[in-house]
Amino acid sequence: MQLKEDQLSLIEELARNEEMINELYLVYSDKFSEEKEFWKNLAREELMHAAKVRNLRSEIGKNGFYFNKNRFKIETIKLFQDYLEEEKSNVSSTSIINALSVALDVETALLEYSFFEVIEGDSAEVRHILLDLRNACIEHRNRVKKVWEEYRNK
Length: 154
Known about the structure:
Blueprint (H helix, E strand, L loop, with lengths): L1 H30 L4 H20 L10 E2 L6 H16 L6 H17 L6 E2 L3 H29 L2
Antiparallel strand pairs: 1-2
Helix pairs in contact: 1-2, 1-3, 2-5, 4-5
């Protein structure tokens, strides 16, 4: 029973990551009116990612769906969340290029640390959700990088 509770907790924290990224991007959209729609679109998509992560809860124990417990600890996720909170609290002194750098770091970290690789499964649905999340993260990183490069080259 504890394993399933741990898995549910981990899914919830991964979904919370997406919500916290959403919150950071919304703060950026308020601060940087010149890129308001860019930030709002990213933020909206982060909420969709959180919903996809939460949809995985119903798959626990079915179709070969399991967690790689050794991948990383929940404390790693909490440290990432602390970083997001710190960046959100520092927004008043952040420049647009700095905000874009943070967003680039966030999206890159999600890919490099492979947060979603803690979840594995044989079902087509689980594989599809995980692939969608990875592809969305790559797409976000590429969009952020493009805008970051535009500002860097100004």
